[in-house]
Write a structure and sequence with these properties.
Blueprint (H helix, E strand, L loop, with lengths): L2 E5 L5 H9 L11 E7 L3 H10 L3 E3 L2 E7 L6 H8 L5 E8 L5 H32 L7 H18 L11 H7 L10 E7 L7 H8 L5 E4 L1 H8 L3 H11 L5 H12 L2 E6 L4 E8 L4 H6 L3 H5 L1 E8 H6 L4 H6 L4 E3 L9 E7 L2
Parallel strand pairs: 1-4, 1-5, 3-9, 5-6, 6-7
Antiparallel strand pairs: 2-4, 8-9, 10-11, 10-12
Bound molecules: guanosine-5'-triphosphate and magnesium ion.
């Protein structure tokens, strides 16, 4: 699971990457890309840490990738590096753009490039499939023969593939193509302080319903270097409740369809990242493969219930609120879990 950062040259990609991960990407030389983890801010996690005072604290993380693409092969570098990214974060320069139309134009320019790149892949694939006699085609290829013209029509209209309704089977057969416009995308409009309000107009103008977040990269960078108290003062003076990069990380996490469950104790409080809809054994596997193989039961309590029981496992147990769940249990966001297994 990872988010690839894209954007026109000098749009503020590496600056945003640094704000989110703490890694000064621009100081990393000789690498085609830098990968960094951003901790996912979560009030529930903070509360659990305050309750258990653990020796070790491990919040949920989202990996971001910042590409260093220069020269003639820049586009190729971006394509190769991000072919495995599950989601895209498109940074739009709103600080040096003259006005809103110019910001929208910048956004459109890259989106068009991505759509064109997908279109070339579709056309190539169609050509190849046409050269093969129908009867030797495998079922997945037959599905593609049907599907590719639909994709082509969509792309020729300048629309992203993610807006097409696709069955899970169709999605599966398209996975290996790494289409840009099929992947979920979050757009970050990077503006100056006085333009912080322009995200709404940008959203309207681009027709992007959700998934647009306006930030002022300069302010965010300043804030990142402050103590928590100074940061709070700074936020108060701006009428903000939290830094905007927090919302970006949280939005990226949701965009990737991930949820968290917690393991708690005096040694460690940890937020584990799993795909939404994962059943208990699969959730256990992210801790250790043995937990999945030898899975017996999961002892579970939802976060809210845990808090309303007084915030101790002993009290929750006494109140009969710790549930024993089996292999078919679908783990819920915020579950506090202890696995029983046998290896
Ligand atoms: N005024 C202003 N300048 C910014 C902001 N973000 C980035 N910059 C400046 O824009 C330039 C490019 O920033 P980067 O973060 O390196 O942008 P990038 O998209 O990673 O650039 P490339 O990797 O070269 O494509 C730098 O000189 C930054 O100081 C911002 O929010 N406001
Ligand atoms: Mg950069």
């Amino acid at each position: 699971m990872e988010m690839g950062i894209i954007g026109l040259p000098q749009s503020g990609k590496s600056s945003l990457f640094e704000i989110m991960t703490g890694i000064r990407s621009r100081d990393v030389y000789g690498e085609a890309f830098v990968r960094g983890q951003a901790s996912v801010p979560d009030d529930r996690f903070d509360r659990l840490v305050a309750i258990f005072h653990p020796a070790k604290v491990s919040p949920a993380k989202v990996p971001f990738v910042d590409v260093h693409a220069e020269g003639e092969k820049a586009w190729e570098t971006v394509r190769q590096t991000l072919s495995g990214a599950d989601g895209l974060l498109h940074v739009v320069d709103g600080f040096s753009a003259a006005d809103l139309p110019e910001m929208v134009e910048g956004w459109r320019r890259l989106e068009d490039e991505l759509i064109l790149s997908d279109l070339m892949v579709v056309e190539n694939r169609r050509e190849r499939l046409q050269k093969v006699p129908q009867k030797v085609l495998k079922p997945a290829e037959l599905l593609q023969v049907e599907l590719m013209p639909r994709l082509q029509t969509q792309l020729e209209q300048g629309k992203p593939l993610r807006d097409l309704p696709l069955t899970p089977e169709e999605r599966h057969t398209l996975r290996s193509f790494s289409f840009w416009s099929l992947r979920p995308e979050l757009v970050v409009l990077n503006v100056t302080e006085e333009r912080l309000g322009s995200a709404a107009a940008f959203q309207k103008e681009t027709g992007l319903t959700d998934h647009v977040i306006g930030i002022c990269g300069e302010l965010e960078a300043e804030m990142a270097g402050l103590s928590p108290e100074e940061q709070q003062e700074f936020l108060d003076s701006l009428n903000m409740t939290e830094p905007a990069f927090v919302r970006i990380i949280q939005a990226a996490f949701r965009l990737l369809g991930r949820i968290t469950y917690f393991t708690v104790g005096e040694d460690e409080v940890k937020a584990w990242v799993i795909p939404e809809g994962a059943k208990a054994p699969r959730a256990a596997a992210v801790i250790h493969k043995d937990f999945e193989r030898g899975f017996i039961k999961a002892e579970v309590i939802g976060y809210e219930e845990f808090i309303s029981c007084g915030g101790t496992l002993a009290a929750a147990k006494a109140a009969g609120k710790l549930r024993l769940e089996g292999k078919e249990y679908v783990v819920q966001d915020g579950d506090i879990i202890s696995f029983r297994f046998n290896v």
